[in-house]
Design goal:
The complex is a heterodimer of chains A (502) and B (404).
Chain A lengths: L16 E6 H14 L5 E6 L2 H6 L4 E4 L14 H10 L1 H8 L4 E7 L3 H16 L3 E8 L6 H17 L2 E6 H7 L6 H24 L8 H7 L5 E11 L3 H10 L15 E8 L5 H12 L7 E8 L6 E11 L11 E4 L21 H17 L24 H9 L4 H5 L9 H10 L50 E2 L2 E2 L4 H4 L3
Parallel strand pairs in A: 1-2, 1-4, 2-3, 4-5, 5-6, 8-9
Antiparallel strand pairs in A: 6-11, 7-10, 8-10, 12-13
Helix pairs in contact in A: 1-5, 1-8, 3-5, 5-6, 7-8, 10-11, 12-13, 12-15
Chain B lengths: L5 E8 L3 E9 L5 E10 L3 E2 L2 E2 L2 H19 L5 E6 L5 E10 L9 H12 L7 E13 L2 E3 L10 E12 H12 L4 E7 H9 L2 H6 L1 E6 L4 E7 L2 E8 L3 H12 L3 H11 L12 E5 L5 E6 H22 L4 H4 L3 E5 L8 H9 L3 E2 L6 E3 L1 H5 L4 H31 L5
Parallel strand pairs in B: 1-6, 3-19, 6-11, 12-17, 17-18
Antiparallel strand pairs in B: 1-2, 2-3, 4-5, 7-10, 8-9, 8-10, 12-13, 13-14, 15-16
Helix pairs in contact in B: 4-12, 6-7, 6-8, 8-10
Classes of the chains: A alpha/beta (502), B alpha/beta (404).
Chain lengths: 502, 404
Amino acid sequence: MIPYARDPQQTIPSSAVKIIGLGGAGSNMLERIALDGIEDADLLGLNTDARTLSTCLAREKIQLGSSLTRGLGAGGDPGLGQQAVLEAESEIRSSIRGRAIVFLCVGLGGGTGSGAAPMVTRIAREEGAFVVVFATMPFAFEGLRRREQAETALNELAVLANALVTFDNNRMGELVLAKQGIHEAFTAADHMIGEAIKAVLRLVIRPGIINVGLDELMSALRTNRSRCLFGSGIANGKDRAAKALKNALNSPLLDQGALLKTAQTVLVHLAGGPDLTLFEIELLMQRLQKFVPADAQILFGAAIDQGMGDSLSITLISALPEDSLATSQRASLSHQAPESLIPDPIDELPATTPRKPSATRDAVVPEATREAEALPLFSTEPETPKPEKHVASFTFTDDTIASDAMMDEPDHLAMLEDEPESEVFDTSITPLDSVSSPESLLETPVAPVDAEHPKLKLGIKSSGPQAELSLDSLNRGRFEGETPNVFEGEDLDLPPFLRKKK
Amino acid sequence: MARRTQIHVGLEIGTSKTCMVVGEIKPDSAVKILGIGVTKTAGIRKGEIYDFAQARACLKDALAKAEDASSVQIGSVYLAVTGAHFQGVNNCGTYRLPDGEPVVASEHVEEASNIAREVPILRDHAILHSIVRNYRLDGLEHSTSPVGLFGKTVESDFHIVHGIATRIQNSIKLVREMPLEVDEIVFSPIATAQMALDRDHREGGALVIDIGGGTTDYALYLNGAIAASGCIPVGGDHVTNDIHLVTGLPFSKADRLKIMEGDASSDLARSVGIAKLTDDRGFAEVEVERSILNEVIRQRLEETLKLVRARLPAGAVEQIGSGIFLTGGTSLMRGFSELAFDVFGRDIYRPEPPEVSGVQASFKDPHYATAIGLIRYAQILETERAGPTGMFKKLGRMIWPFGR
């Protein structure tokens, strides 16, 4: 076999992604994300309050309404927030320009968040970005007024954003012990949101052997006024598939998998080191079957990441209609798929950034087909010695060949996806069309593409080099295998004699 | 109104043994222990059931023995429960009397109590006890209900014990399968304290530490009221396990070594030489250096006591006037009192044999402290219950003069 270089750039370059934290809550989320270390994301902080903004961890900051509020906050008045953002519109525009995907993190209910979020979303859309909004709804104790402000903003966002993920702070509070402080409640909420953003980010910017992308994500979340179910787990060693699944189901948002029972679409993404085996995937999926209804659509993706070492991670994303959760108190994450997403892909197309597709396409096509033959359905192990992760779509992989052509291309995204425009080139692309499965999606600046469009899929990569710290190196004798008896960071089941010797 | 003799049964399903005590409360409130049924427990770890079937078999055995020893047909028991999931918290409820009502009415106190009982607990937890510590009326402490007094603000201070509901239910289910009824569930250290402490001790400030096989339970009383209670999931099993892990001896030998030779005091003179276990024929089977053995034991127990200390409210240890009462099987460890003194710096006592009659040998043994405490608890509960009913009866008699 002739080795050929695969294109590592199947990933959406991080420069194409921007994460915006808007308002006080937004900058908190941003902080969380920065601290949790999303390696390559570009962070932008927007706020009316100059003081809060100055402590924000984002590299880029824009103060909203500096002449309007003179560095003070919006004081809970959405009108003020909206005006403030208009003042800074050109700055925001230039900061967002050229980004394919924009994540907007915002806490609704306050002035800046509720007032400015719809405007920022609109600006981002106008700049041709695919906008995913993560919004938190206020705690119940914050009062009805804020709740109403939040609802209003949410309705606007539902129309404006490409995807909207809603977290209810009330539910978030349930994640933490009732007696823990409000500080912890907010931290837990931010953490959960950070996790979800990371998962979506991985999904979008990292390719996989079996790809899932934004399209799958959207169809997984595609229920009106729904709440997002999200869980991810990582495990290594013997039986890691089962353990990882267990960890994922442990997410409070999934309630041990009970909430998946009624899900109609579940997105499952697996990532593992080069030693990920088909058997493991099979095993894991079999177990998962027990938690999802038989007729549910399972959107499955897998990726190899050298950085994973011998661990395996699984990410589950799904959505339930909000009312179906009324009985189960657990779920804390709600997602709304705005109607706009679902039906109308086409009008969004024009918004997409201009690409130079044709040359690359042509180059890609023959290769892709060739490789399709070369690769088995799933290539589980690193067939091609790539340092990075590989992308292969089920039926064909586009990456390899494309690489050369693409290398010089400024916008990789463009090439990756055959955008909707692909239709134009139909003749040249035909092989692609026929090959790629209908559900596959591109994640590009392009707005949601409708299902019939042929797309290449990008895979989600689950987080790179997270190694799990193994704590149980010591034998625990009689208490072996029990849940660790941890008190103030020490495992009480281990002899103090051994623990304290150090 | 003379009450009948009553028989109560206390059941403690401990990590190392299941113990059922049958006690008789005479009309004059004297307690007599009629019999005790004890079995070694299997299927319990750190105070919680992990093998239901085994635990059931053990309980069945203990029940048979207790019925045998006491010649009583046991129908219902007071059940002591423990486990690391139990937490004791204090909460104070404040109610300000509405304008125009200068006298505290019982509804006002009830309202304050309800407020106090609303502690934030985890979703899966349930409240096991809510015990009144005291009442305050406009900042002045009242140990009894201030109903009928003049005042503005009523506060009631509660100690609330809560734990994971499903685990409590499983303990009840275990007992029901005997079949036995459960009269009441009691958090172990509270039951133990009934036996170990009298009123004077509580007034003076006392801490009961019941260090058993799998758990260390504690209850702190200050100024006559309970101030803290809880459970640390460490006990004698851990000591054995530590010896096993450090020396590599099998469990059975480690356990025997612990009981026969171990010493928890930091007295260097007791850590000289080699501890030996001899087999039936007098040959040494096991030899461990005392310095290591004792150090392992001491570190474990010291850590455990320090954990208890750390969980007590700030400044509580200084308020303990009566002393610290050690009970439970592991408290029999040599040198444990010295160790406890080193940790707490307070007087260390073993609970006096309670004022009960019957098979004396069993009361002195700290192993049975909790189960006997349950009988006491039952007795107290019985009198408390008698109180209100007595009032109702009186009331009833006023209306219905032909009462009993």
